[in-house]
Amino acid sequence: MFELGELRVPLTLYTDAYVVKGTVLTRQRRVSDILNLSEYEFLVLNDVVMDEFGSRAQTLRAEFAQVNLAAVLFAVVDTPIEPVPELRTPKIPELAIISVPPFKVTGRIHLLPERDLREALSELTGRFVPVTDASFWSDTVGEARTSAAMLAVNHARAQILAPFRETNPWAGLDRGATHAAEGETPTQ
Fold this sequence. Notes:
Elements: E1 7-15, E2 18-26, H1 31-36, E3 42-52, E4 60-68, E5 72-77, E6 92-100, E7 103-111, H2 117-122, E8 128-138, E9 143-154, E10 160-163, H3 175-181
């Protein structure tokens, strides 16, 4: 096996109460590997900024902070790092919704091929599950929908992880015909 150089990876960690931004020094290239292969039950971040949800208090800053991985709901990579092609396992992307209160996450989870969806979901293991082409939001804490190329959800904190199909409730309705039948002019 070859040796990878140490990287400074910017991360944003979402917990029940805080958004914690900082950088982690690691030899891992993917956020899911940084979290899943951690030697400890915590990460030490450098150049940390912490904001408490719903608080008007001043943002906290610290040169270093230890963040308990069990408290992390999900982690977002600020700048995606390309994985090493030799280490890739072929997988099938599947659109999913993940409930990790107070947040919801949608995006693509990556499942092993040649399995039915039920079996593939049962084989989805790891402390943190990678999600690509993701969006996350929380109506409860007032966090607007945000897009992320890659994030990793704490599997133990996820209450529901299910296949998902986005649907348009207006699909198939001819709004112009409805307005014409009522004697109205459709608006744009």
